[in-house]
Write a structure and sequence with these properties.
The complex is a heterodimer of chains A (about 450) and B (about 160). Helix content of chain A is about 40%, strand content about 5%. Chain A contains 17 helices and 7 strands. Chain A has helices spanning about 1-20, 35-50, 50-55, 95-105, 120, 125-140, 160-170, 180-185, 190-195, 235-245, 255-265, 270-285, 320-335, 360-365, 390-405, 410-420, 430-435; strands at about 70, 75-80, 150, 215, 220, 245, 250. Chain B has helices spanning about 20-30, 60-65, 85-90, 100-115, 120-125, 135-150, 155-160; strands at about 1-5, 10-15, 45-50, 55, 70. Chain B has a single domain (about 1-160), classed as Roll (Ubiquitin-like (UB roll)). Chain B has about 160 residues and is α+β, with helices and mostly antiparallel strands. The chains are: A mainly alpha (about 450), B alpha+beta (about 160). The interface of A and B includes residues 328, 367, 379, 382 and 383 of A.
Chain lengths: ~450, ~160
């Protein structure tokens, strides 16, 4: 008994020692002129590659001022203010404190941060890149804003326990920057945060890199060899997609991927090409799935004439669903008009082949909002038009006609769950969050 | 044959099931309140209510409106006896060219029936899909606030007003 207590006490001491991180002294907020312009510019590019602004900005809030609530299976974690405001932001953080937060997930005062901040990836970022990111963030406009307190269940609200999580799951960097694409994909771009499935402790499952996960109620498709895309991606199509938010022969970015592509549209071409090449490599060579339908990227796309607006939809499948598709969907999706203005022919879309239909439900309910001032796909939402039963019938038809795969399990449950959830910010107020975007249109005067 | 229930009245229409609800309302029933704007569900001029929710009637096939309660601008009141939302829009002179206004009124009506006392933020968020190219947004917002203040409990009599 005494021995057991002793071991427990020792373990406690050991864990406390493990969990303890020192505070790093506060510094006076750096003046913007303290950083070289080139360093700040590279920092802005890296921030776009890291998609920082998306999580660190509340809906309709000021950029980087935090406050966005991220739903996790363990509760809600609120993104912090990373503007250089001395009181509520990171104004008193030294470069060393910033680097430590990226490398080890600890704030300046020594508190463990929740891995909703993806330091399991950011740990790979080099000191050099962290220096540029620091220079960029410290030259933003300081915003006074305090994020709401996290809403986590006990004992997950006890931060020192995160030291145990890190012991299990954090492989400290920096990473090998030899291959720029690998370095970005595994590090700053943190693709795996959404595209890799997670275990019961919320860590990415080892050996399942990029095998498909969830993000904010959306399915993040597998982007490794298990990619469900009917037409294989290659580096060129991925590059176009990541820059523009859509690919004529594969589909469009929506949900949480839309701001990612909006950000990458502003990132340097070379960095995005490196990411695209790396993802294409991870996807590897696959057999082309049978009958992916007409490739709209091919030269023989049908012209968008009036009579092409009424093409009969593929036969078979759920008759109610087919009738709904014919009446509500086909006049855009069968018109043969290519993206970004026409509706994607769904035989080329990944969604009907994906293991989970929730993305279709979300897009059908809330549509695709117009991206302000940019050339991008749009779709009206059908919330209030389709009943749950009609949505189920439509999904059954889409799966059979375009997915050419066995029926989705528990479609009714998915439809019920997604349609009961509040509409996502379908009409975002902040331009960066509204992606998809066409960077070639930026700077064009109207 | 497609059967539609509009403003409390049953209609049997000889149209294809994929006919947009907007066309059925305007061309078959002579209810010209809802307007054709973009035809793509992007501007809101065609907004009507289906089972109390604001929808773009230009992209709703009549197939999906069967068996549901469709309410158009004409269902809210008449020129002689406008409904509370219509009265508020008139009082605030919210229309300039007026083309978007029927859709604006219908979307506002759907909000006020669900949330009789919306905040400004709720009104802005809810009205976001509807466009006004004249720029009378400030007056439209005032009209909706006035409608919220002056409206009584929804009177079913208006829903039976017909064309």
């Amino acid at each position: 008994m005494i021995i057991a207590a002793g071991i427990a006490a020792l373990a406690g001491v050991g864990f406390t020692a493990l969990a303890w991180e020192p505070s790093i002294d506060a510094v006076p907020p750096p003046v913007p002129g303290a950083f070289a312009p080139d360093l700040v510019r590279r920092g802005s590019e890296l921030a776009a590659i890291g998609n920082c602004v998306t999580c660190h900005t509340a809906p309709a809030g000021r950029p980087y001022a935090g406050g966005l609530g991220m739903e996790t299976p363990f509760g809600t974690v609120y993104a912090t203010n990373i503007t250089p405001d001395p009181e509520t932001g990171i104004g008193h953080w030294s470069e060393r404190a910033f680097g430590r937060s990226m490398r080890r997930g600890v704030d300046r005062e020594g508190r463990h941060l929740y891995p909703a901040f993806p330091y399991d990836h950011f740990t790979k970022v080099t000191d050099e890149d962290n220096r540029a990111l620091y220079a960029f963030l410290m030259t933003r406009e300081p915003v006074r804003a305090t994020a709401p307190a996290n809403e986590l269940v006990f004992p997950l609200n006890v931060r020192p326990l995160l030291a145990g999580w890190k012991l299990l799951f954090l492989r400290e960097g920096p990473g090998d920057a030899a291959d720029h694409g690998t370095y970005l994909v595994d590090g700053l771009s943190h693709c795996g945060s959404c595209h890799t499935p997670r275990n019961l402790l919320g860590a990415e499952r080892r050996g399942h890199d990029l095998a498909g996960g969830v993000a904010d109620g959306w399915a993040a498709y597998a982007i490794n060899a298990a990619s469900p895309a009917p037409r294989p991606w290659d580096a060129e199509s991925l590059f176009f997609y990541l820059r523009n938010g859509w690919s004529a022969s594969h589909g469009i970015a929506r949900g949480p991927m839309a701001p990612v592509t909006a950000n990458l549209g502003a990132a340097p071409e070379g960095d995005v090409r490196a990411i695209a090449a790396e993802i294409a490599r991870r996807m590897g060579r696959r057999d082309t799935a049978p009958n992916p339908g007409p490739d709209p990227a091919a030269a023989d796309t049908r012209p968008a004439t009036a009579d092409s607006q009424s093409v009969p939809p593929p036969s078979g499948g759920d008759p109610t669903g087919r009738a709904i598709y014919a009446a509500a969907c086909a006049n855009c999706h069968e018109a043969g008009r290519p993206l970004p203005y026409g509706g994607m022919h769904l035989a080329g879309s990944t969604a009907p082949r994906a293991p989970d239909p929730r993305n279709i439900v979300r897009v059908v309910l809330d549509g695709l909002p117009a991206a302000e001032g940019e050339r991008a796909p749009v779709m009206p939402g059908f919330r209030g038009v389709l009943s749950d039963a009609q949505m189920v019938a439509l999904l059954r038809y889409l799966r059979e006609a375009f997915g050419q795969a066995p029926p989705w399990p528990d479609v009714e449950g998915t439809v019920r769950e997604v349609s009961a959830a509040p509409p996502q910010a379908a009409y975002p107020t902040d331009a960066v969050r509204s992606g998809p975007s066409d960077p070639s249109q930026r700077g064009v005067s109207w | 044959m497609v059967s539609l229930r509009v403003n409390g009245q049953e209609h049997a229409l000889d149209v294809d099931p994929e006919t947009p609800l907007l066309y059925a309302l305007r061309d078959e029933l002579g209810l010209n309140g809802a307007k054709y704007g973009c035809g793509l569900g992007q501007c809101g001029a065609c907004t009507v209510m289906v089972d109390g929710q604001a929808v773009f009637s230009c992209v709703v096939p009549v197939l999906l409106a069967q068996g549901r309660e469709v309410t158009t601008l004409e269902g809210l009141g008449t020129p002689e006896a406008p409904g509370p939302t219509q009265r508020a829009f008139i009082k605030e002179q919210a229309a300039q060219c007026g083309y978007c206004i029927p859709g604006m009124i219908m979307r506002a009506e759907a909000l006020l029936r669900r949330a009789p006392h919306p905040s400004d933020a709720e009104i802005r968020e809810h009205m976001h899909p509807n466009l006004c190219r004249c720029g009378t947004h400030a007056r439209i917002l005032r009209a909706i606030r006035r409608a919220a203040e002056t409206r009584e409990a929804p009177r079913t009599a208006f829903a039976e007003g017909g064309r």
